[in-house]
Amino acid sequence: MGTKGDWEANKTALVEAAAKAGVKVYIPSEFGTDHLSFFRQTGITHPLFISKQKHMQHAKELGLQVHAVYIALIMEMAFSRWFGVDTQKRKWSLVGTGEEKWALTSLDDVGFFVLRVCEIALEEGGKERLGEHVRVYSECWTYKEYAGVFERFSGDKLELEFTPVQEKREEYERIKHTIPPHLLGPLIGIAGGEGIYDHIGLGDKNEILLKGAKWKTRSLENYAEEVRGKPWDGVDLKF
Fold first, then answer.
1. Angle 213-121-60 from CA coordinates, rounded to 5°
2. From CA 14, how far away is CA 27, in angstroms rounded?
3. What is the tens place of the pLDDT at every residue in 24-45?
4. In Å, how far are 54, 69, 89, 130, 191 from 117, measured between CA atoms?
5. pLDDT-derived band of residue 4, with 50, 70 and 90 as boundaries?
6. How far, CA to CA in Å, does 112 sit from each of 5, 109, 178, 218?
7. Which residues contact 177 (CB under 8 A, 6 or more apart)?
8. What is the pLDDT of residues 83-103, one digit of tens each?
9. Residue-wise DSSP of 173-201
10. What would the DSSP string read from start to end of 137-178?
């Protein structure tokens, strides 16, 4: 539903209408960071995350069967300057050590995963098999591994630099009062550096969701080939 206007009131109206209509499975608007794991691991809160947690709790109190789907980063957006990837300069400025896994989900795959969650949630025992928090991904590699794929398709060598997580956390504390409540700012890098986007390590549901499915998730190689190894070259991602 976005974060424009009175988005919290809009979400409340939507979930209450869903409950009154007898909706069987409710998928809240997550589609990003597993913020509950992030809070448990780092102790860092954010107005957007707090709002999402309250919304999910309200949905459960209304009697809805709720499954939050976390896709981590969107593949087609994750290699832009907004995330520290500067294709023009052939330089990637990232958080962590470069050894952390960062899950990516293609825009092509989001709808498939949500549909499969709804299908399985309605099966006998499906609610328990999925759990309330469902992590998915199209690819889940390290940024060093991702860089190698883009280098192969572009023929260019990339410069990778990594900022320690603690340094980024200190930066966030200094500037968090300047960040609009609907934007995460440095928190995305912090989450990745803390391993929150390692959906394999944290426990994903890909095996359950992909079992028996004819859908094939998009590979990073496919995306890298499409952009000829130069994602968002000279173009800025706008929100």
1. 150
2. 11
3. 999 998 778 999 899 888 988 8
4. 22, 8, 40, 8, 25
5. low
6. 29, 5, 37, 11
7. none
8. 999 999 999 999 999 999 999
9. HHHGGGS-TT--TTHHHHHHHTTTT-HHH
10. -SEEEEHHHHHHHHHHHH--PPEEEEE-HHHHHHHHHHHGGG
Q: Model-level pTM?
A: 0.92
Place of tokens 């070259």: 233
Residue type, 57: Q
Beta strand 85-86 pairing with 91-95: antiparallel
Please answer whether residues 158 and 144 qualify as being in contact, where contact means their C-beta atoms are separated by less than 8 angstroms: no
> Tokens for 198?
């390692």
Q: How far apart are CA 205 and CA 141, in angstroms?
A: 16
Instruction: Please state, in angstroms and rounded to a whole number, the distance separating the CA atoms of residues 133 and 218.
Output: 22
Positive/negative CA dihedral, 118, 183, 8, 239 = negative
Torsions phi, psi of 191, nearest 5?
-60, -45
What's the one-letter identity of residue 228?
Answer: R
Contact 71, 107 (CB under 8 A): no
SS3 at position 134: strand
Amino acid occupying residue 219: S
